Amino acid sequence: MIRDSRLSSVLHALLHMAEHDGPMTSEALGRCLAANPVVVRRTMGLLRDAGLVASERGHAGGWRIVADLETVSLRRLHEALGEPAIHALGHRHETPSCLVEQAVNAALGQAMAEAEALLLDRFAQVTLADLARDFARRHAEVRAQKG
Amino acid sequence: MIRDSRLSSVLHALLHMAEHDGPMTSEALGRCLAANPVVVRRTMGLLRDAGLVASERGHAGGWRIVADLETVSLRRLHEALGEPAIHALGHRHETPSCLVEQAVNAALGQAMAEAEALLLDRFAQVTLADLARDFARRHAEVRAQKG
DNA sequence: AATCATGTAACTAGTGATGTTACATGAAGG
DNA sequence: CCTTCATGTAACATCACTAGTTACATGATT
Q1: DSSP annotation string for A118-144
Q2: What is the tens place of the pLDDT at every residue in B74-92?
Q3: In degrees rounded to 5, what are phi and psi of residue A107?
Q4: What is the CATH number that goes with domain A6-146?
């Protein structure tokens, strides 16, 4: 089971918002993501706290992007979500007194730190604008196949 | 919360077994790991199925290593444990019909695949013998400080 | 004032490792 | 043979966390 799909969800939501004129309601986003509107609000609220989106109540309310797509990287979104744990693996005692466990933690910890650094680096290199362009390319491709 | 510390646990257990003469009981290993003996049996059983350790019942029974420490890598142990999920992040729909989600999955999936490949590569390069040597070095260091 | 949408609390569901109890099975020693 | 010791395994509880759901308050627009 995937433990945390929020980064994927907010990316999906943000791209839909980028392609959409005017604010989108939590319910509309929930239909796009096949997710519950309350969960959408809960997750988007973290992006609002980070200054990436804004929400408005009442008629014609909803969510809209207030940041430049070119400057928002996946890493920034990951941070906005509270930097949830990336790895499902780990060790129980962080600072063990046992020398054996220290050796284990050193080896395991280094490999995982390298993998995490690589992932965060990749996240930092991809912006919402990149994804929007990739979507546009896929969209054009499908239209070309049909036409 | 760490979801899966089994790799760390079996490494810890195997190194203790390597430093110990004769088989070690689940209860003794449980004391080393601060874990429940039944959990130890459950986890070590996977290594037994992979041919890395053997178990014996009755008096003077317990667990012992039957593989060459030089040839057992962290990756092989990870495989013996059933290759549990490495990432805590992911997306919900693997093959979405939505083009937006396809673009998201492609970007996210590639970054995560790279990170996973790096981690598995690092795991493949570290053997139990390497860890045993690292432990011996740490042990000598501590004795030097005391003496 | 009615309607619409967010804000948020409170609770449930689902997942997977880990903890725990209980009991069967087999091996060694008296 | 029988007791003891240790694994083998089933069954259930616990824990942590995201996601789903219900309910209601708050604020903005018409």
Answers
A1: HHHHHHHH-BHHHHHHHHHHHHHHHHH
A2: 999 999 999 999 999 999 8
A3: -65, -50
A4: 1.10.10.10
Please give the DSSP secondary-structure letter assigned to residue A4: B
Beta carbons of B108 and A74 less than 8 Å apart: yes
- Here the tokens at position B102 are 């396809």
CB B5, CB A92: distance < 8 Å: yes
The answer to whether residue A1 scores a pLDDT higher than 80 is no
Nucleotide nearest to B30 (CA to C1'): C19
From residue B71, alpha-carbon distances to A42, B15, B144 in Å are 49, 14, 30
**Through-space distance between the first and last CA atoms of chain A, rounded to whole angstroms:** 39
Residue of B15, B74, B94, B104 for testing the chain A interface, max A β-carbons within 10 Å: B104
AA letter at B92: R
Q: What angle do CA B43, A91, B2 make, to 5 degrees?
A: 90
Task: Return all residues near B16 (Cβ < 8 A) that are at least 6 apart.
Answer: A100, B24, B29, B32
Q: For residues A122 and A78, give the distance between their C-alpha atoms in angstroms, rounded to a whole number.
A: 12
How far apart, in whole angstroms, are the C-alpha atoms of residue B4 and residue A87? Answer: 9
With a cut of 60, say whether residue B1 has pLDDT above it: no
In chain B, domain spans = 6-146
SS3 for B95-116 is: CCCCHHHHHHHHHHHHHHHHHH
Residue A60 beta carbon within 7 A of nucleic strand D: yes
Question: With contact defined as beta carbons under 8 Å apart, do B27 and B39 qualify?
Answer: no
Residue A122 structure tokens: 């990749």
What are A45-74's pLDDT values in tens digits? 999 999 999 999 999 999 999 999 999 999
Closest CA to A47 of A66, A34, A24, A26: A66
Query: What single-letter amino acid sits at A5?
Result: S
